[in-house]
Design a protein that fits this description.
This protein has 15 helices and 12 strands. By secondary structure, it is an alpha+beta fold. One of its GO terms (biological process) is peptide transport.
Amino acid sequence: MLAESWEIVDLHTIIYHIREGVRWQDVAPVNGREFVAADVTNYIDWRIQADREQSGDETVYSDQEDWLAARADETSAQAWVAEIEELGVELWSAVSPNESYWHAPDKYTLIYKTYNEKFNNVTAGSGFLIWPHELWESYPEEDLNDWDKQCGTGPYYVVDHVSESSMTFERNPNYFKSDPLHPENQLPYVQTVIALAIPDQSTYMAAIRTHKIDYASMGLSDAQTLLRSNPELLYDEFLPPTSNVTFVRNDIPPFDDVRVRQAMMLALDHEAIADELYDGHATILTWPIMPQWRFSYTPLEELPESARKLYEYHPDEAKQLMIDAGYPNGFKTSIYSWTYPSRVESMLIIKEYLAEIDIDVTVVPMQGSEYVSLLLNTVWLEGDPFEHMMLDFFNNSQEYYPFSNYLGGVAEWETGRGSGLNLARVDDQEFRDLFAVDGKNYYGILDEMERYALIKALNVKA
């Protein structure tokens, strides 16, 4: 919102045009001054310097010569260093050379540039914390997270906080947005908002039921219980920023055979699972891109037949794919996840369906610490114990996350360091090649990658 427009120049560069007239909240020591592009670069430079001081100024590369020697193309690396030095941008961060930078050539222009081509440049400025320079110039760093030191550009600012009880917000009279239906009306309309912390679930539900609070969010089961007792309540359904995904190892048998992964998809009755597990309140296609990303999400009914069919129930075709892949008698495997009831129920449903194509699944619910330990071992240690399946959340709160996570994870595996975001160990050159295109076709690329990931069943979505 702080940028009114942007230009994707190439896979290295994006230019943001900052909205004029946006003001910081009118609290000391910032006092309502205008938000400008330099606020972003000032904060990033200060953060780099603070991180360096905290780390004792230890860097991976001791000087520019070491860093240049480590680059495959030394000429382009030297040009990058020269460019940064000419702009006066900080080159060295706390632990590694900066291979990206932000630059503000004027009050309302902000340039983000990277040394390497990055497909996700378009989301580089999609959301991160920015503090005005007056804060770190006025307070010690350890106090900057205190509630009474906060200052932003949003519709409300904090005026009171009671630990583990409540937080009170007042309307920002300098907020830059107006009601789109009534432009003469400045937002927000509500003067005061009080956010209550109610840790006891029964008390929380009772407060909603008796209309003591105006807004609340909750899971499906609690919402259904509440609506049965209080049908007068207004509600809206929304998707979380994560998907339940069954990760299967794409790099080892039997899951390295795309026919096995496709057979597993065809063996699952997704419509029945939505009805059984979520009482019909479910969106079947939420991976790899969530429906709220409307510019890049393709609804299930609009997918090509080869992708759409994998979300249909075809157990006979699944059995034939298993035979074609060389597993006429199936195989044994295990599925791991948390002990949360919904996770366990999901795993048992998957087990039941896969048994129809002779895949014998052992369900392994794990306590939180035990599961995290397995996850860490999976990611960081040699002798990988994860050779089966893992039901986990996949963060696709940004459009490019599933794709950049796969590619970033693959790159880290090649250097001996695994990524917890690429649990399926996807290493597919054709999938990688989809990144090597003009960044201006961002949404077209995402569309192609979504279809490719679905057709190849890179993960088993259930």
